[in-house]
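QA checklist item 7 of 12: single-chain prediction sanity check.
[x] sequence parsed
[x] length recorded as 127
[x] structure emitted
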Amino acid sequence: MEFTPEQERDNALAALARLRAGLAAGLTPEQSARLQGTTEEEITADAKAFAAELSAHNPAPPVHRAGGARGSDVKGVTGIEAGAEAYRRKHGLDADGRRPAPQAAPTEEQQRRNPFQTASYRIESGR
């Protein structure tokens, strides 16, 4: 089915009016495409009614004020910053994204030392 240029223009203007009215009422573009009406006022009224109907059927979830995943033990960093922080932690980077300076190699004395040796423990010969 072919449309004349005037019909195509009218269809595009109607789609634009539905989209504008739907977005103003808080609808998604997909929901806005379902709006009905021949004038801008009718489409706007339909958008408001449709948005009210949707919100009545889908009430907002309750907001948890304490505990849960955002308890006192959870850091306040969220979103992209939290991901960047986790990446830096995983790869051993500092806050500026640089690797810390390498530590000096252990001395020969440190390499020969028993890691389990304690300064307070001595073995004495039996008396």
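[x] summary fact logged: Residues 55 and 124 are 82 Å apart (CA to CA).
[ ] second reviewer sign-off
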